[in-house]
Amino acid sequence: MRQIRRALAILAASAGTLTGQQASSTRGDTLFLEVGSPHVDGRVFKPHAALVRIYRGDTLTNEWLNELTLGDSAGRPVMRWVTTSRPVASNPNRPLSVLRQTYDAVTLAPLGYAVTSNRGAATSLAIDGKTVRGSRKGPNDAAATRVETPVNRLGYFAGASDLVPVAAGLRVGSVMVAPVWSPAMTTAEDRIFHVTKDTVVNVEGTPVRSTKVEERKRDGSLHANWYLLRESPYMVYGEVPLPDGRIQRMTEVPYPER
Question: How many Cβ atoms sit within 10 Å of the Cβ of residue 23?
Answer without folding.
Answer: 15
